[in-house]
Design goal:
With 368 residues, this protein is of the alpha+beta class. Helix content is 24%, strand content 36%. Strand 9 and strand 10 form a beta hairpin. This is Transcriptional regulator.
């Protein structure tokens, strides 16, 4: 009996050691030295921009340290950038993919097709359909390192790019590409993108605010398979028993259509206005690449909620222009003028840039 007991203990010890090794495997792979190549910064950027049709599946995690002001209408956006978001992704292309956000209480799936997006909430068995617009609030697919990395690199100029070595990400060699924005208004110190040398897919993206050594946003793949998923995995049709509802989110474009008065200027805070098809005169986006500034008309309720939240933010500035604050690299400002309509300035710009933009804004009219 004693001999058999000792044999069982040895066998279970071996099983325990194997389990421990499997659990530690991802961190061990990440600790392995990465192999760099001689690819230039321009060449690596070109590889990223050519990777949008690469099919893959995997598991990604985004960690945001931005404690954004929360409002009833923008809670989901605040959650994306202030919490840890775990995502399972199947990607056949920009117009055919699925991203499931996994939480302790369940899952929410985002299915993109050629005509729009289905959002499926598993626990409530509720489906919501949305169609693409000229300007949309961030959604989980926008936080994937592959999506975010490509967008942030898409408009970077050659003098803003440099190589920064290599590291292991998701068991693959990630080649480092750094963006240091040139715009004086930018609140971003740098963006580091770690790129798979074989496919050009960004494996990890880190965004650093000026004056901070810790990333304000870090999104990375923990597991990645480079193969096109089956079409039935990304496709979605609501079950007959599902509840259907229209998108009840804050419609930026609808609010902007109510604006009257002079057109928004061509330049704000030293940033040029972007030509975005379909935007009404009361809404505009300025800047390029990493440095962006949006002018958003705010209905009375939203303006009031944001105003109260900003007042409570550390370091908030309140003056005759309104109330403004910075949360990491993100600046937010509610502008109020006597007799005018409130509006919000927000983007990856400094609070000084927000104040300069507010001072140059024309009077906005329209229904509050």
């Amino acid at each position: 009996m004693a001999a058999r007991g000792r044999g069982a203990a040895v066998r279970w010890s071996a099983v325990g050691a194997l389990v421990a090794a499997l659990v530690a495997l991802p961190s061990l792979l990440g600790a392995l030295p990465a192999t760099d190549t001689g690819v230039s910064a321009a060449g690596l950027r070109a590889a990223v921009l050519a990777s949008d049709e690469v099919g893959f599946s995997g598991y990604a995690v985004s960690a945001g340290g931005l404690s954004l002001p929360v409002t009833d209408q923008l809670t989901s956006v605040a959650d994306l950038f202030s919490d840890r978001t775990s995502m399972r992704v199947w990607w056949r292309g920009p117009a055919d993919h699925r991203v499931d956000v996994l939480t302790a209480t369940g899952e929410t799936g985002t299915h993109r097709d050629a005509l729009g997006t289905w959002t499926w909430e598993y626990e409530s068995a509720t489906a919501r359909r949305t169609v693409p617009g000229p300007l949309e609030l961030p959604a989980p697919p926008d936080l994937l390192p592959s999506t975010l990395g490509a967008r942030l690199l898409s408009e970077a100029s050659a003098d803003e790019l440099s190589r920064v070595g290599a590291r292991r990400v998701a068991g693959r060699d990630g080649l480092g590409l750094r963006v240091v924005p040139a715009a004086r208004a930018s609140s971003v110190e740098r963006v580091d993108v770690w790129v798979d040398g074989d496919s050009g897919l960004p494996l990890q993206v880190e965004v650093f605010a000026k004056g901070s050594a810790r990333a304000a946003l870090d999104t990375r793949f923990l597991d990645l398979e480079l193969a096109v998923p089956d079409a039935e995995v990304t496709a979605f049709s609501p079950p007959e028993s599902a509840g259907l509802r229209e998108d009840g989110g804050f419609d930026l474009v609808a609010a902007a259509r109510q604006i009257t008065g002079p057109a928004l200027p061509l330049t704000l805070a030293g940033l040029d206005r972007r030509p975005v098809e379909g935007l009404p005169r009361g809404l505009a986006v300025y800047g390029r690449g990493v440095t962006l500034l949006a002018v958003v008309p705010a209905p009375g309720r939203l303006a009031g909620e944001l105003r109260r939240a900003l007042h409570a933010s550390p370091g908030a500035v309140v003056d005759e222009l309104g109330v403004r604050a910075s949360v990491g690299p993100l600046g937010l400002m509610v502008v109020d003028r006597p007799g005018g309509r409130p509006y919000v300035l927000t983007g990856t710009v400094t609070t000084e840039a927000l104040a300069a933009a507010a001072a140059d804004m024309p009077e906005l009219g329209g229904r509050p």
